[in-house]
Design a protein that fits this description.
The protein contains five helices and six strands. The protein has 181 residues and is of the alpha+beta class. The strands form two sheets. It has a four-stranded mixed beta sheet, with helices on both faces. Strands 1-2 form a two-stranded antiparallel ribbon. The radius of gyration is 15 Å and the shape is globular. The model has no long low-confidence stretch (mean pLDDT 96).
Length: 181
């Protein structure tokens, strides 16, 4: 298997293959409109604007699996992202990203880039880790996606290079992105 083996559904309901992204550097990210990390859309869009012409694609996958923070229909998600954050990168249909119902792409990504913990020296990492330990301890087990805005960086050959957790700011990915471009 490779990252290019998967078929996806766009936010408008069209079927597409990951093959269309061959030769691009990718960031695959699960998103939500009503999350404390939702403002990351701003910096994801900045990265997209800065690096798209050099071959970066950001693929956003709304998910309602974390505190039901993406309750709207796909059309609502698309409108929200465009109106509030000016998102122009591709968005996909609402997608399960963890547990038995996880889309096979996310199962693959989490196998290739295992969970290594949150940076608890940072306030947001400490807070999210404590929240999950108290409220959803099973979320911390295994390598599955832990929360909204988990980001996977993939090189031009389709290799999963690095996983960035929800608490990792998108702009902190710049050096890694630039190495791959």
């Amino acid at each position: 298997m490779s990252v290019y083996s998967y078929e996806l559904e766009t936010i408008k309901g069209e079927k597409v293959s990951m093959e269309q992204y061959k030769g691009k550097v990718l960031i695959v990210v699960n998103t939500a409109s009503k999350c404390g990390f939702t403002p990351q859309y701003t910096d994801l869009q900045k990265l997209y604007a800065e690096y798209q012409e050099q071959g970066l694609e950001i693929l956003g996958f709304p998910s309602n699996q974390f505190g039901e923070q993406e309750p709207g229909a796909n059309s609502d998600v698309q409108s929200f992202c465009q109106l509030n954050y000016g998102v122009t990168f591709p968005l996909f249909a609402k997608t399960d990203v963890r547990d038995e119902t996880a889309h096979p792409l996310f199962r693959y990504l989490t196998e290739e880039a295992p969970f290594e913990g949150f940076d608890i020296t940072e306030p947001s990492g400490k807070m999210l880790n404590a929240f999950l330990q108290e409220k959803l301890p099973h979320f911390l087990e295994g390598n599955s996606v832990k929360w909204n805005f988990t980001k996977f960086l993939i090189d031009r050959e389709g290799n999963v290079i690095k996983r960035f957790e929800s608490t990792d700011e998108p702009l902190n990915m710049k050096a890694d992105i630039e190495q791959l471009l």
